[in-house]
Amino acid sequence: MNRRMLLVAAGWAAAAVLAVLVGITAIGLIGAGLITTGERPRTEAQVARDLANLPSGPAGPRASSPPASEGVGEAPGAGRTLLTRGGTVVARCVAGRAEIVAMSPAPGYALHEQDDDEGEFRSTSDGHDRDEFDVVCTGDRPALVSRAGD
């Protein structure tokens, strides 16, 4: 090899090393702010203080989850939360007519259909596992009635 080829090869190697160093430096300077929130982990004392400041509620876990037609949170005028195999439905009765306010699928399910008073969750794995239901009013309280899948 002649001297000129050696200089060209050395120049390319130096440029490659310089480019890598500039990239690593740039990632170190601005990358940390892009991927972290800047919040430090809490100490055990901070966690204990925060837990002590929480409002006290009923002690102990719930004995069991409510049946599909039992509501959770019954504030007047607000929706009633109803639990199904495929997810959670918030419904209310307005002038004796059932109305779905919101639907949220459970893990492994997706929202497939939502109308005023009927809905459907479907399995995300194959779509054949369906949870179809109607919402009806019993007095002024919404309730779920399961439908057989197609």
Secondary structure topology:
Elements: H1 3-35, H2 44-52, E1 71-72, E2 80-83, E3 87-94, E4 97-105, E5 109-114, E6 118-123, E7 130-138, E8 141-147
Antiparallel strand pairs: 1-2, 2-3, 3-4, 5-6, 6-7, 7-8
What's the short story on this structure?
With 150 residues, this protein is α+β, with helices and mostly antiparallel strands.
Explain what the structure shows:
The chain has 150 residues and is α+β, with helices and mostly antiparallel strands. Helices cover 28% and strands 34% of the residues. The protein is built from two helices and eight strands; from the N terminus they run ααββββββββ. It has helices spanning 3-35, 44-52; strands at residues 71-72, 80-83, 87-94, 97-105, 109-114, 118-123, 130-138, 141-147. It has a four-stranded antiparallel beta sheet, with no helix packed on it. Strands 5-6-7-8 form a four-stranded antiparallel beta sheet, with no helix packed on it. Strand 2 (80-83) and strand 3 (87-94) form a beta hairpin. The N and C termini lie far apart (78 Å). The model is unreliable at 60-71 (pLDDT under 50).
